[in-house]
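Page 37, continued from 36.
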């Protein structure tokens, strides 16, 4: 109610695919932290190559030292985490290269991380990449995912978000 009185408006934002691949429901991820939405709601991508781009315009608020995950915050306050693979933190950065740093401004399609898909397949539990809105309960009024068998990184819309 106070937001409406003081003029804060709901914002609609599009989340685009951060990787090429098949977009699937997050509850299909074989990790309860993601599938049970403990970190927030989102989608996941069964990726086909090792290039990660920004799914949304915002600021890099965190790039993990291992370069296996990156957090982006939009102007409207939505926080998006792109987490490459499952149990990839144990790789200690091997096969991952970050192309951004904390504080960088990004737009959809901007190059964030590259990684060796074959090495991830060999050393991690999975290459599936969850894309999670980590502050979902605080900022999201509605979330409409768009599943696709062949999403194009930086182009294909994977979800429409409506902020509170």
């Amino acid at each position: 109610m106070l937001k409406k009185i003081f003029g804060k408006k709901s914002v609609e934002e599009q989340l685009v695919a951060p990787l090429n691949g098949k977009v699937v429901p997050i509850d299909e991820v074989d990790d309860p932290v993601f599938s049970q939405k403990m970190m927030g709601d989102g989608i996941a991508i069964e990726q086909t190559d090792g290039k990660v781009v920004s799914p949304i315009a915002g600021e890099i608020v965190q790039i993990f030292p291992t370069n296996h995950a990156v957090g982006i915050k939009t102007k409207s306050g939505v926080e998006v985490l792109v987490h490459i693979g499952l149990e990839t933190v144990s790789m200690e950065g091997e096969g991952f290269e970050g192309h951004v740093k904390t504080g960088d401004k990004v737009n959809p399609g901007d190059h964030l991380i590259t990684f060796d898909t074959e090495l991830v397949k060999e050393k991690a539990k999975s290459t599936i990449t969850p894309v999670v809105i980590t502050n979902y309960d605080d900022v999201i009024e509605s979330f409409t995912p768009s599943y696709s068998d062949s999403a194009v990184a930086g182009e294909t819309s994977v979800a429409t978000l409506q902020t509170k």
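Confidence is low (pLDDT under 50) at residues 1-5. Flag for discussion at group meeting. The chain is about 10% helix and 40% strand.
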